[in-house]
Amino acid sequence: MEDLTAACLCGGMRGNMADEFKRLDRKLVFQGSIIDYYRDTILVPNGNVVEWDFIGHKGAAAVVPVTEDGKILMVRQWRNALDRYTLEIPAGGLNGEPTIVAAARELEEETGYCSEDLSLLISIRTTVAFCNEKIDIYVARNLRRTAQHLDEDEFIDVKAYEVDELCEMIYAGKIEDSKTVAAIMSYKNKY
To answer: How far is CA 153 from the centre of its chain?
Structure first.
């Protein structure tokens, strides 16, 4: 069974499937401030033509801010899509700059701390079934207190948590945000 699973995961059963799919058309349905929504027409391997949704995203950066005592600064903010508050790591979209610059910007804007000691932890693709969003996640150390610089529509509370406490919240379903889950679990595994 293990050999069959490995063959399936590595593409050993059918060859390179990417060569068997062909985009015939991509139509912009809606252009937003954060995402662009497209309708793709795709020729699939069996010869059928299907339509798939595609969300184009400009990318984002996030940061795991680590305090001197090893706690992680988290942000609590309202998320309209879920109609509730969430607990997340600081993050934000790119404005045409490198992701490390965006991560440093979001750190200061959302938490009121800055750092010149950022290192890449992990890169993730958040929802590969219909969106190309990529988030580079950094670890920030040697934090210095400055001041929050929130956008007009941002209302963010900041609190420091122990890593194990955050892991317990993940397993209890209290933290569901994919970038935050990936970041906390990767940080715990690496450091």
So the answer is: 20
Which residue bears the tokens 């956008």? 151
CA distance 135 to 57: 10
| Backbone region of residue 145 per phi and psi (left: phi > 0; alpha: psi in -120 to 50; beta: other values) | beta
User: Closest Cα to residue 137, out of 178, 77, 85, 172?
Assistant: 178
pLDDT in 10s for each residue of the chain, 191 residues: 455 445 455 555 555 555 699 999 999 999 998 899 999 999 999 999 999 999 999 999 999 999 999 999 999 999 999 999 999 999 999 999 999 999 999 999 999 999 999 999 999 999 999 999 999 999 999 999 999 988 888 789 999 999 999 999 999 999 999 999 999 999 999 99
Q: Token digits for 16?
A: 């390179």
pTM beyond 0.90: the answer is no
Query: Which tokens is 100 given?
Result: 């490390």
The crossing angle, in degrees rounded to 10, of helices 163-171 and 178-190 is 130
- Report the C-alpha gap between 185 and 21 in whole angstroms: 34
Of the candidates 68, 97, 152, 168, the residue annotated as catalytic is 152
Distances (CA, A) of 94 to 9, 17, 23, 42: 32, 32, 27, 29
Q: Is 154 one of the catalytic residues?
A: no
